[in-house]
Design a protein that fits this description.
CATH class: Mainly Alpha
Structural class: mainly alpha
Number of helices: 5
Shape: globular
Radius of gyration: 17 Å
CATH topology: MDM2
Oligomer: single chain
Distance between the termini: 48 Å
Number of strands: 2
Number of domains: 1
CATH architecture: Orthogonal Bundle
Strand content: 5-15%
């Protein structure tokens, strides 16, 4: 019988590739190239720091002056967030 060695799970290379934010996104997370995972983390840090989650429905994020151009509307759900942000990465 062959035994299979359990290997540590490696993150997907596409998620770890540093991407450069455009000017709209850079206004929120900074201009340096970072992996997608880090972009999402920085946006959530910004949202929490400025208390932008909707108090009635915590799944919704209210846009402030910096996030409005990024979202294109006043409020987005956290499920839309990644799709909207990915459009601003190159």
């Amino acid at each position: 019988m062959a035994t299979t060695a359990k290997t540590a799970r490696k993150p997907n290379a596409a998620f770890m590739k540093p991407l450069t934010p455009d000017a709209t996104l850079a206004a929120v997370i900074g201009p340096e190239a970072v992996p997608r995972t880090e972009v999402t983390k920085k946006i959530w840090d910004y949202i929490k720091k400025h208390d932008l989650q909707d108090p009635k429905n915590r799944r919704n994020i209210n846009a402030d002056d910096k996030l409005r151009p990024l979202f294109g509307k006043e409020q987005v759900s956290m499920f839309e967030l990644t799709k909207l942000v990915n459009a601003h990465l190159k």
